[in-house]
Amino acid sequence: MPKKPVKTKLDVADIPEVTEEPAVKLEHGEFIPTRLQRKCKSLILSKIINAPEILETITKEEAIKYSGIKELNQWWQNELFVDWLQNNSTQLSRAHYLLSRHLDNLEEIIEDPECTYSAGVRLSAGKQLQEMMAQARNEKSRRLTEEEIERIAEKRIEAAEKEVKILEGKVE
């Protein structure tokens, strides 16, 4: 029985070909930008890196000035594009989506039933997964929930009110 070829590394053939999608595409009610539109937003963000809040109110003229992309004249007619461009949290949403896709790819490599990937590639995928899990645990432990922040704020307010009462001589 002939042996199946084993992939020792990922090559270009493993990556699906990306074509420029239409300027307006909706997926679950969300605007999906083209590659050029994403590049445009990146160029704008790189110019306003010290004041990203500008993005929320950027005008068409400013966007063209910062990006140098003339297609903005046409894109600006689409309200969904403008909403996407002015939304500063889309980068984070996209990063979450890409991270999810990366996890799918790692899962495919690790759980490959036909053993088409070499042990080295599968081991590397496992290490990447472990690193991602460790990073996620660290981030989660650093974040406070809104309830925790409210409790801390309430305690500080109560302590400050007690101090004021003490200073005013109205100790209970």
How would you characterize the overall build of this protein?
This protein is an all-alpha fold. 59% of the residues lie in helices and 2% in strands. It has 7 helices and 2 strands. The protein has helices at residues 35-47, 60-67, 72-75, 79-86, 90-110, 119-142, 146-168, and strands spanning 26-27, 30-31. Strands 1-2 form a two-stranded antiparallel sheet. Helix 5 (90-110) runs antiparallel to helix 6. The chain is flat, with a radius of gyration of 25 Å. 9% of the residues are buried. The model is unreliable at 15-22 (pLDDT under 50).
| Mean pLDDT over all positions | 77
Strand content: under 5%
Helical residues, percent = 55-70%
How many helices in DSSP terms?
7
Task: Describe the structure concisely for a colleague.
By secondary structure, this protein is mainly α.
Please write out the topology.
Blueprint: E1 26-27, E2 30-31, H1 35-47, H2 60-67, H3 72-75, H4 79-86, H5 90-110, H6 119-142, H7 146-168
Helix pairs in contact: 5-6
